[in-house]
DNA sequence: AATTGACCCAACCGCCAGTTG
DNA sequence: GCAACTGGCGGTTGGGTCAAT
């Protein structure tokens, strides 16, 4: 009975096994690849003495047996990266995995579906669009909702600029549809996980202000603490001003693979990503995004899917 | 102690794109 | 140009585990 359960298709009159891999099968696959490399996956099973289809062998290797795979729980930094990249590329798990060393797309996908998606819903954010599900947000305060609206504006501007920059590299591509407004999820995420309040990232006033100049990694800078009356604070200036009232000193780093501002004092002041800053259209920003997109392992195919 | 339900994750399936003959 | 083959990817499933009742 149990054998029939995992009996798969036949190939050359050999019944292919399905279901969980035994330690012996793992050993056979490992030792074969160690000696010969995987070569053609289609012919590997017979050469390695496995009654599996090549596809099953490939999946077992790429998702489990590969030596460069880190297993275990995702840390907060990895979760941050997943959320930011998901906001940018959607369910392109392989592209996201390319940015997370030693993690597989399958693992990230599972983690997203079982943990991150639920947490986002709990935060009142749609895990697909990264938009608030409705007005019953995780933040009960009206001012927090106002902040989220600012976030959406800002993220929208960022996506537009990003699309322009990418198009500049792929001029043959047709103009993209306007990107959907999207939140700075990392920011909301960190506020959620640290118990902080949503008070970050957006310039004051109801209109979207010009994004800040683009800082160099490691550059020390200051962030003006602007209050729009609704409590929203924003990155206003890469300042050479003296740190004074309402100016938060901090540093830009790229430890997550994208620019990110961290205040010098931990405070509840300005924390979170630096995505807004790259909306500035200048050569520095363009160069950054050029390399960044490479890092995320975009292929031409991905880009065309994004903008066609 | 037994049952139930939620959670986790390995593995499968189907689709698509690229390559080859 | 076309069909067959191959590899890669994302969606889904189902079995194991564990906590709650």
Automatic annotation (TrEMBL):
Keywords: DNA-binding, Nucleus, Repeat, Transcription, Transcription regulation. One of its GO terms (biological process) is regulation of primary metabolic process. Pfam families: Myb_DNA-binding (PF00249). Residues 13-65, 66-120 form the HTH myb-type domain. GO terms for cellular component: nucleus. The keyword Signal does not apply. Gene3D superfamilies: Homeodomain-like (1.10.10.60). GO terms for molecular function: transcription cis-regulatory region binding. It is found in: Nucleus. Residues 13-65, 66-116 form the Myb-like domain. Its main location: nucleus. Transcription factor. PANTHER family: MYB FAMILY TRANSCRIPTION FACTOR, MYB TRANSCRIPTION FACTOR MIXTA-LIKE PROTEIN. This is Uncharacterized protein. It comes from Erythranthe guttata. The lineage of its organism: Eukaryota, Viridiplantae, Streptophyta, Embryophyta, Tracheophyta.
């Amino acid at each position: 009975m149990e054998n029939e359960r995992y009996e798969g298709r036949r190939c050359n009159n050999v019944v292919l096994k399905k279901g969980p891999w035994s330690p012996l099968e793992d050993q056979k696959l490992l030792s074969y690849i160690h000696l010969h490399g995987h070569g053609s996956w289609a012919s590997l099973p017979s050469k390695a003495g496995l009654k599996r289809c090549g596809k099953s062998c490939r999946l077992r290797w790429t998702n489990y047996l590969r030596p460069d795979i880190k297993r275990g729980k995702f840390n907060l930094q990895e979760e941050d990266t997943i959320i930011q990249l998901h906001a940018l590329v959607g369910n392109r798990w392989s592209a996201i995995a390319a940015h997370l060393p030693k993690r597989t797309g399958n693992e990230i996908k599972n983690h997203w579906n079982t943990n991150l998606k639920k947490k986002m819903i709990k935060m009142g954010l749609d895990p697909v669009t990264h938009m608030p599900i409705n007005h019953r947000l995780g933040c009960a305060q009206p001012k927090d909702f106002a902040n989220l609206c600012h976030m959406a504006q800002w993220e929208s501007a960022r996506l537009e600029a990003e699309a322009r920059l990418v198009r500049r590299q792929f001029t043959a591509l047709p103009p993209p549809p306007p990107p959907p407004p999207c939140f700075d999820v990392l920011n909301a995420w960190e506020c959620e996980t640290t118990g902080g309040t949503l008070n970050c990232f957006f310039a004051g006033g109801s209109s979207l202000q010009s994004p800040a100049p683009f800082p160099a990694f490691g550059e020390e800078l200051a962030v003006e603490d602007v209050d729009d009356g609704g409590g929203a604070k924003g990155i206003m200036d890469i300042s050479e001003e003296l740190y004074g009232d309402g100016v938060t000193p901090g540093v830009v780093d790229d430890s997550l693979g994208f620019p990110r501002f961290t205040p010098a004092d931990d405070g509840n002041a300005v924390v979170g990503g630096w995505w807004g800053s790259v909306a500035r259209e200048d050569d520095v920003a363009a160069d950054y995004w050029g390399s960044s997109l490479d890092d995320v392992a975009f292929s031409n195919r991905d880009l065309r899917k994004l903008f066609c």
